[in-house]
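W.,

You were right to be curious about this one. When I first looked at the sequence I had no strong expectations either way, so I just let the prediction run and decided to look at it fresh. Below is the sequence, 494 residues in total, followed by the output.
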Amino acid sequence: MPRRHMHVTDAAEAPLRAALHDLRGQLEIPDHFPPTAQAEADSAARAPRIPAGDGAVVTEHTLEDATNLPLFTIDPPGALDLDQAMFLSRRHGGGFRIHYAIADVASFVTPGGALDAEAHHRVATLYFPDERIPLHPHTLSEGAASLLPDQDRPAVLWQLDLDAHGALTNASVRRALVRSRARLDYAGVQRVIDDKTAEEPLALLREIGLLREEQEAARGAISLHVPEQQIVERDGRYTLAYRAPLPADGWNAQISLLTGMAAAELMLASGTGILRTLPIARDGSVARLRLTARALGVDWPHHTAYAALIRTLDPRREAHAAFLQECTTLLRGAGYTAFDGTPPDASAAQHAAVAAPYAHATAPLRRLVDRYTSELCLAASAGAAPADWVRGALAALPHEMETGTQRANQVERACVDLVEAALLRDRVGEVFDALVVEREEDDPTQGTVHLYDPAVVGHIESAPDGPALPLGHRIRVRLTAAEPGSAPVRFTPA
């Protein structure tokens, strides 16, 4: 998944879309699925083959029927690739029960087939500002495998029991046939929760989400509510602006995070699995971030821990939004740890940002590893051995996922450079107010600035014999280059 979300509205100019189309060609991003893979997807959409624990398959007609659960999905408006659906309830005697359905991709992808091979090649859905390049064909990702409303779907169904404080007390997972009742979006969910018209299963999202955020704080963990950058029209020009996430975004993310933690514990207990891991950030990275905070005017008292600071930030404020973008640099170094027979020790199993073992488990339509996590957790929950095709893929998965992550990061960097250059190409020579947020150690005349408006980050370079850039200070900068596809934005002191 990208660390910086960018979105082009329908109003965005055609040349920008054309440049993004050209970028996909330059990066050799596939624009279609091989005919054999597409044919497999079309066939599976008509007749999914649901894996059984003994390596056999069952049909939807013999699958456990859980369609009585009034599940609902929460996604961005218009989204059709719906990985998760939930139903929240109170437990007798106190606490909560979460039913969390995950798209059962393994019921549509035959191990060793052409579609499976293509998924291992793509690894993850790629996000461009104007469109996405899916991991699986639309026949599945936006059709037969997606948890669309009023459709019976095979799913991997988690049951997560929490106590009155939001702590997990029991987790189990099984295959079942489910039916979502409603496709909701974040703004609509936030509105009905705020005005107290939400029915209890949805209203509980806030109650459970807040409790899980308290649990997160107690662990010393962090959730980065990184704003989305949107291309908007302003005074006849296109520019970049931040869209801050709503509280409902965070509450929804807590359910997914909880499931990933439960999945990790199940796999660790069984001795076979694959974790998403992140080492503790080096002191130098945190020190650099402190300089960025000072540059952006973010108050970071010396005695305040990074995790505590994050919880005080308001992503609706420009300076805080920019700082949250920079905070994602501490997530560098994340990887995948696979094991079969001997689980990793506690330190090697940790995800530093989660402050607990964690696994990618809730987005199998968009990320390859999640399909395998589901199968490993189904086996662990049933006390059975994982299928041979699952176990056989474990050794290669960390490298495959790392390759896919690098490709997604390359796409992200290229898109940011292109979009910023496209939006500023007609403003070369203009002067902007900016903050110096980074200065190169070996050459203090070069560094990075963050414009106050628009929300652009770019390279700045003084004359070789000029003064050092004033790190942490506001300066006036002149735009010297901005050419989509050939010259990212560049500045000099004005």
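Here's what jumped out at me. The mean pLDDT is 89. And, maybe more interesting for your project: The first helix runs from residue 14 to 26.

Coffee later to discuss?

I.
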